[in-house]
Amino acid sequence: MSATLAPDRSRVGIDLVTISEIADAIRRHGDRYLQRVFTEHELACCQLPGGVSAASLAGRWAAKEATIKVLRPVGPQPTWTTMEVRRLPSGACAMELSGSAADLAVRAGISSLSLSMTHDGDVAAAVVFALCADSGHPDSSTTSHELVRQLNPRTPQRKETPDD
Question: Which residue, 26, 84, 112, 154, is the most exposed by fewest CB within 10 angstroms?
Fold first, then answer.
């Protein structure tokens, strides 16, 4: 008797980081570190009257690390700013991908991502859960362009052509 494995229909990534580690990186490297790792939107969401919230940025760092675990890159990993924690109007946060991170998601057939972040004391954590389309299945009807739009809703809509 032989067994066949079901297609990889979901993925999960988790990461923990100490807030003091992120605060130390901000102190040592300042804007150079902040601009390399975080997007303008992320930095704006983490602003406090005296500067940025290391705890909030640590949660976003953990979210990016958890996302990399979901994307499972072989070779170079995506740049930090191609993974962005977006604050939604409801106050909840979502992971949005662009560039090389979105390309990896499309290749993996990832159709949606869910994000949960938390911090307490000196620890921040994030969990990213991904649903994967059955991209190898002949009946799969989701195109790579549709997947990118789902992962980055700000991507402009484009008319599908027969070659898509």
Answer: 154
Specify the pTM: 0.81
- Secondary structure percentages of the chain, helix, strand, coil, to 5: 40, 25, 35
Q: What sign has the CA pseudo-torsion 52, 55, 93, 75?
A: positive
DSSP 8-class letter at 106 = H
φ/ψ of 27, rounded to 5, equals: -65, -45
Helix (H, G, I), strand (E, B) or coil at 4: coil
Task: Delimit the domains of the chain by residue range.
Answer: 10-151
Q: What is the DSSP track for 117-159? A: EEEETTEEEEEEEEEE--TTSTT----HHHHHHHH-TTSPP--
Domain 10-151, architecture per CATH: Alpha-Beta Complex (3.90)
State the pairing for strand pair 47-48/93-97. Answer: unpaired
Convert the pLDDT of each residue in 46-76 to its tens digit.
999 989 999 999 999 999 999 999 999 999 9
Cα gap 24→35, rounded to integer Å: 15
